[in-house]
Specification:
Length: about 400
């Protein structure tokens, strides 16, 4: 990448044990061509020293406003940034940012930055849930910052709960998307979206199932994109072997019945539901509690199947909230648009993403091509490209359909 065109990122690091994970985030950013200035707090240096930040970033490192005063760094660093990401963001740092305090270089930088700002909080569950932190997070979000929900898991001591810093690779993915969009305000802030992903498996016996080849990549791309645009995301993932996206509430399921239960539960509070999962249309009538055995000299019994309920049709036809936007996916091999239109009407959804199944478009690919059909008659072609681009187009179309939005 041309040096002059390198996006300038400020990586703020505040004083929590997860500071060591920010080294990995820094590496990802620098290796992908970003110019990164690390601004730790004084407390952060108890966990990772200035020499590490300086060596990894190739830039000077200071915590206070009294170093290199002739360069006015407390103003310049923020002004010149294309993105500020604070990882980990402690409860103290969030409080200072929400109240506009400016007692060190990082808090000054946050006040002078006019670019998108991402906070990746990490703290104990009690601190995250405390009303003071809740209010500070709400204030920051209202002002246009992206505050990533912490992950659930092992915390510093023996305890577990919500408060872990998400995987640095996934925080990097959020930063990449926010930088690519280049807009200050995340347009899904305050929205709850539900996405199903992967492929359901219908058990035949304890060791066998009927399944499909869906990788879950499109659903995960939708979840990553929605989280980077500020949404509260529930990702209902059926048998997907992919890294957990940052800031996403992940519900793992196996069968269609489990997927249906999880989607309907989450849909009760959702502004949008996107059914990207490949749902098995049929399941075995009977489940054998013991492994089905071969019988000498006998052909196996045919597997009797029964139809599964149509979750997309259910969600579309019994909207849990007025104005809820519902999106389906369809794979078609012929008469793509006609079949897609008929399916859109049959299911009753607002948008249907129609993929033509062909040579280049196989399950598990990172790229796809589609047309998004709208119940209002609209047709949005999405050229062959990354699933991430299709995800952003879907969210653009969803946002335009939220009640009160100016329709495109
Ligand atoms: N879907 C669902 N519940 C089912 C089956 C499918 O919610 N039991 C959803 C999928 O998540 C997807 C859309 O419906 O959003 C796909 O519809 P479907 O009728 O299964 O279309 P195709 O798989 O393309 O198959 P067909 O043309 O055979 O109907």
């Amino acid at each position: 990448m041309n040096k002059a065109a390198r996006p300038r990122v400020v990586l703020g690091v505040s004083g929590g044990i997860a500071a060591y994970k920010a080294c990995e985030l820094l590496r990802r950013l620098t290796e992908s061509g970003h110019e990164v200035r690390v601004v730790p707090t004084e407390a952060a240096l108890h966990f990772v020293g200035a020499a590490t930040w300086s060596a990894l970033s190739g830039q000077p490192v200071a915590t206070g406003v009294w170093d290199d005063v002739h360069e006015v760094p407390h103003v310049r660093i923020g002004q010149g940034a294309d993105l500020v990401v604070v990882a980990p963001a402690t409860t103290d740092l969030l409080a200072k940012a929400a109240h506009g305090l400016a007692d060190d270089l990082l808090t000054n930088t946050l006040l002078t930055a006019r670019c998108p700002v991402v906070f990746a909080p990490a703290m104990h569950t009690e601190m995250w849930e405390h009303p003071a932190t809740r209010e500070n997070v709400a204030t920051l979000r209202r002002r246009g910052a992206l505050v990533i929900e912490p992950a659930v898991g092992r915390l510093t001591g023996v305890d577990t709960g919500k408060g872990r810093l998400p995987d640095p690779g996934e925080i990097y993915e959020v930063c990449r998307r926010v930088l690519a969009r280049g807009v200050r305000e995340p347009d899904l802030t305050g929205r709850h979206v539900v996405i199903s992903a992967g492929g359901t498996r219908e058990p035949l016996d304890p060791v066998r199932f009927l399944g499909n080849r869906s990788s879950g990549k499109q659903g995960y791309a939708l979840a990553r994109s929605a989280a980077a645009r500020g949404a509260r995301v529930t990702l209902v993932a059926a048998n997907a072997a992919l890294p957990d996206p940052a800031g996403v509430d992940l519900v793992r399921v196996g069968s269609t019945a489990e997927l249906r239960e999880a989607v309907l539960k989450a849909a009760a509070t959702a502004d949008a539901v996107v059914m990207a999962a490949a749902v098995a249309d049929f399941r075995p009538v009977a489940y054998a509690p013991g492994k089905i055995k071969k019988r000498d000299g006998q052909e196996p019994d045919p597997v009797a199947l029964v139809r599964n309920p149509d979750i997309l049709a259910d969600v579309s036809q019994h909207r849990a909230r007025p104005g809820q936007v519902v999106v389906g996916f369809a794979a078609e091999t012929e008469d793509v648009l006609d079949n897609g239109r008929a399916k859109l009407r049959r299911k009753g959804c607002d948008l249907l993403v129609v993929n033509e199944v062909g040579e280049r478009k196989t399950f598990g690919a990172d790229e796809s091509e589609a047309v998004v059909l709208g119940a209002d008659g609209s047709e949005t072609p999405v050229p062959f490209g990354p699933k991430e681009a299709l995800a952003d187009t879907v969210w653009d179309l969803v946002v335009a359909r939220f009640p009160g939005a100016p329709h495109q």
